[in-house]
Design a protein that fits this description.
The protein has 5 helices and 8 strands, in the order E-H-E-H-E-E-H-E-E-E-E-H-H. The chain is an alpha+beta fold and 199 residues long. The protein has a single domain, classed as Maf protein. Strand 3 and strand 4 form a beta hairpin. 35% of the residues are buried.
Length: 199
Amino acid sequence: MAVKIVFATGNQGKLREIQEIMADMDVEIISMKEAGISVDIVEDGTTFEENAMIKAKAIAEYTDAIVMADDSGLEIDYLNKEPGIYSARYLGEDTSYDIKNQALLDRMEGVPQEKRTARFVCAIAAVFPDGDVQVVRETMEGHIGYSIEGENGFGYDPIFYLEEYGCTSAAISPEEKNRISHRGKALKAMKNLLLSRAF
């Protein structure tokens, strides 16, 4: 009997990534929508960890399943770590990522390579039925590229350049991305936590 995990996301791309990474565990991962949970959550934390915990605890009030929530985003060092925790809401929540990505490239125009350092951050919180809360945090380091490139991935992937691959994180295969990404590493850390609890 698979353990049910409700993941607090409405993002299908993110859910698919999570399901792929956790595929070798006996767990069934469903979105909050699939669990019949609809709740407006005010993410007013000041860190990725706080926002992940806020989301997970809010959803946990509506289910007996394990609840996981992530908060992830892009930190650009030259822009004082913007957009950071506001990554999803940068330039407005309904603004397309093509516009967001182009806006960031415009802000970085003329900035030399060595000052284009950036990272994706992912914090995942889990609330267990016994009330225990665990949080993990992982990153993927890279640079901001000079143009929008790549068809894989979503969000800011097309402007996030990975030196060792010579391309953006939207141009590598989903399997490779899951192996090296901030979310992939955070989910693996969370997977180890689940296994340590005898799942």
